[in-house]
From TrEMBL:
Bilayer-spanning residue ranges: 40-70
InterPro entries: EF-hand-dom_pair, LPCAT1-like, Plipid/glycerol_acylTrfase
Pfam families: Acyltransferase (PF01553)
Domain Phospholipid/glycerol acyltransferase: 122-233
Family: Belongs to the 1-acyl-sn-glycerol-3-phosphate acyltransferase family.
Organism listed in the record: Cryptolaemus montrouzieri
Broad class of where this protein is predominantly found: membrane
Gene Ontology terms: cellular component: membrane
Leader sequence segment: none
Pathway: Phospholipid metabolism; Lipid metabolism; phospholipid metabolism
GO BP annotations listed: phospholipid biosynthetic process
Protein name listed in UniProt: Phospholipid/glycerol acyltransferase domain-containing protein
Keyword RNA-binding: no
Keywords assigned: Acyltransferase, Lipid biosynthesis, Lipid metabolism, Membrane, Phospholipid biosynthesis, Phospholipid metabolism, Transferase, Transmembrane, Transmembrane helix
C-alpha cells in the first residue's frame, strides 16, 4: 500500500522553496499483492468481529448519554454545566467510546498531562486530519466542542455529541459566527465548572503536512489555551480524510482491517497570552500555531478554510488539476498576476499558437511572466502531465477564468477557450472537454449530448444551441443552474441565449 500526502505541487506563502505543500490531498492505494491479500483476509476474519463489538459499545454509550440527558431541555443544557450523577455518566460514556477505539486496533500514546480547566479553559487541537481525532476528545473525558447544528440529529452520534454540551453553529443564522464567539467567551470566562472547550482551530481536515491558518474564534476570550498536538505514526496512513482523497467509508474499512493503528497525543505547556495577544485574537492564534508547528516539526502555511470552499467548487466542476486550484491562485498572486487581464486577453485572441501543446518558453511569453522565477516554473508544473515538456494551455486558462464564475458563464468561457474554429463552433472532442470540465459530465454523456444537439450532422455545436438543448433536459438545467441565484438570473433573462438566427429567445 502506498500513501502520498503531496500532489507534486502545493502552496506556501514562501515560494522560495522548490517543493510546495498541498495539505488537502491524500492518496491511498493498495499497490502490492501482499497488502491486497492481507486486507481481503482481514476483511473476512477481523472486520465483522470488530464491527459487531463496536456497534455494541456504541449503543451502550448512546444509552448512557440518553440516560444522562433525561429530564433536561436543550435550553437548560446550554445554560449551565452538568453536575452530580449526570457529569459522572458523561465520564462513563466517554470511557465506553474510548473502548471502541481500542477494539478498532488503536494504541494511544500520551505525552504530557492535561491541566485542569481553571488553568486552561480552551483546548486547541491540531492538526485536524480525521474523524479519528475524536480519540483525543474521549481521552479528555468529553470536552465541549464547537459543532454544526445539524450534528445533533445524527443517529446515535448526535446524542453523544449533545452530552458534551457543545457550542452549536447554525449556518442558516446570519449571526451564527458572532453568537458562537459570544458563547465561547461566556463559557471560557465563566466561574461555573463548564467542561473545557475543544476547538480544531484550522477549521477543516488536512493531511498533517503543515499547519494551515488558525481561525481566531477560540482566541477571542483572551484566556490561557492548552495546545494539543496529534500524530498518527503509522507506516500506512488509513486515517487521513481530506478534500481530495479516499472517502470516509473506505478509510474506515481500511483502518478496521489493520491489526493496529497508532496515535500520539502531546499536551504542550499551557499558552498564556500577553496583553497584545489578548487584544489581537489573530496574533494570539498565529503565535499558538507557531508553538505547535515547532513541536510537530512541520511548516506553517497560509491556507485557510475558504481555500477548501474553492477546492470544493473546483472539484464540483471537475476542473483540470482541481486539487491544485489554490496553488494556482497563490502562485499567480506571487507573480503579480492577480490584477492583470493577461489570461482574458489570451482566451479572447486568435493566436496562431497551438494552445493544446505549449512549451515553458511559450508559456512565460504568453503570460508575460519572468522565466527564471521559481513560481513561474511551479505554475507550469501544475499542468505538465508527462516528460514531453508541454502543457495544454487551455486547461490553465479554464481554471483561471472559470473558477469564480457562475456555472453558465464558466461553460461559456470553456466554449470560447476550446473553440479552434474562431467562429464559436466546437467539434466533438473539444465540446466534451468544455462540458466535462465545467459541469462534470462523463465523456460518454457528453458525446451523446453532442450528437443530439448536432441534429443536422454539421460536425459542430455552438454555445447557444447547447443552451437550447439544456432547456429540454431538466437534469441538465439543474447542473447548469446550480443555485437559486443562477436560476433567478436565468428566469429574468440574463442568461437568455441568442439562437443561431440572431434572435433572442424568450
Amino acid at each position: 500500500m502506498n500513501t502520498k500526502t503531496n500532489s507534486g505541487i502545493g502552496s506556501r506563502t514562501d515560494c522560495a522553496n522548490e517543493k510546495l505543500l498541498n495539505p488537502f490531498v491524500h492518496h491511498l492505494e493498495l499497490d502490492t499483492t501482499y497488502e491486497k491479500i492481507k486486507t481481503a483476509l482481514l476483511t473476512i476474519i477481523l472486520l465483522p468481529i470488530r464491527v459487531v463489538v463496536i456497534c455494541c459499545f456504541l449503543v451502550a454509550g448512546w444509552l448512557v448519554a440518553s440516560a444522562g440527558l433525561l429530564g433536561i431541555t436543550e435550553e437548560e443544557l446550554m445554560e449551565k454545566p452538568l453536575t452530580g450523577w449526570r457529569s459522572r455518566l458523561k465520564i462513563v460514556s466517554a470511557y465506553l467510546i474510548r473502548i471502541i477505539f481500542v477494539i478498532g486496533g488503536f494504541r494511544l500514546k500520551v505525552i504530557g498531562g492535561l491541566p485542569e480547566r481553571d488553568l486552561a479553559p480552551l483546548v486547541a487541537l491540531a492538526p485536524h486530519s480525521s474523524f479519528v481525532d475524536s480519540l483525543a476528545m474521549v481521552y479528555m473525558g468529553g470536552p465541549s466542542i464547537v459543532a454544526k447544528g445539524e450534528t445533533a440529529s445524527i443517529p446515535l452520534f448526535g446524542k453523544l455529541i449533545n452530552f458534551t454540551q457543545p457550542i452549536y453553529v447554525f449556518r442558516e443564522d446570519s449571526n451564527s459566527r458572532q453568537n458562537t464567539i459570544k458563547e465561547i467567551i461566556k463559557r471560557a470566562r465563566s466561574k461555573l465548572d463548564w467542561p473545557q472547550i475543544l476547538i480544531f482551530p484550522e477549521g477543516t481536515c488536512t493531511n498533517r503536512s503543515c499547519l494551515i491558518t488558525f481561525k481566531p474564534g477560540a482566541f477571542y476570550p483572551g484566556v490561557p489555551v492548552q495546545p494539543v498536538c496529534i500524530r498518527y505514526p503509522n507506516k500506512i496512513d488509513t486515517v487521513t480524510w481530506t478534500w481530495d482523497g479516499p472517502g470516509a467509508l473506505k478509510l474506515l474499512w481500511l483502518t478496521l482491517t489493520r491489526p493496529y493503528s497508532y496515535c500520539e497525543i502531546e499536551f504542550l505547556p499551557v499558552y498564556t497570552p500577553n496583553e497584545e495577544e489578548k487584544n489581537d485574537p489573530k496574533l494570539f492564534a498565529n503565535n499558538v500555531r507557531k508553538v505547535m508547528a515547532k513541536a510537530l516539526g512541520v511548516p506553517m502555511s497560509d491556507y485557510t478554510y475558504d481555500d477548501c470552499k474553492l477546492l470544493t467548487r473546483a472539484k464540483e466542476m471537475n476542473l483540470p488539476q482541481a486539487s491544485s486550484i489554490v496553488d494556482l491562485q497563490k502562485l499567480r498572486h506571487s507573480l503579480g498576476m492577480a490584477n492583470t487581464n493577461q489570461e482574458e486577453a489570451l482566451a479572447s485572441s486568435r493566436t496562431n499558437l497551438n494552445l493544446a501543446e505549449v512549451t515553458y518558453k511559450d508559456f512565460v511569453n504568453l503570460l508575460d511572466i519572468p522565466p527564471m522565477e521559481l513560481s513561474s516554473r511551479q505554475l507550469f508544473s501544475i499542468y505538465k502531465k508527462d516528460d514531453n515538456g508541454v502543457i495544454d494551455m487551455r486547461e490553465y486558462l479554464l481554471c483561471v477564468l472559470a473558477i469564480n464564475q457562475t456555472t453558465p458563464n464558466a461553460v461559456k468561457i470553456a466554449f470560447k477557450i476550446y473553440d479552434q474554429s474562431g467562429q464559436g463552433r466546437l467539434r466533438i472532442e473539444d465540446f466534451c472537454k468544455a462540458v466535462c470540465h465545467t459541469i462534470s459530465l462523463s465523456e460518454d454523456t457528453a458525446v451523446d449530448i453532442f450528437h443530439q444537439v448536432d441534429k443536422n450532422k454539421l460536425g459542430y455545436v455552438t454555445y447557444n444551441s447547447f443552451l437550447i438543448y439544456v432547456d429540454s433536459r431538466p437534469e441538465l438545467v439543474n447542473l447548469l443552474y446550480r443555485n437559486k441565484e443562477e436560476k433567478f438570473m436565468r428566469k429574468h433573462g440574463q442568461f437568455c441565449p441568442i439562437d443561431d438566427t440572431g434572435k433572442k429567445r424568450d
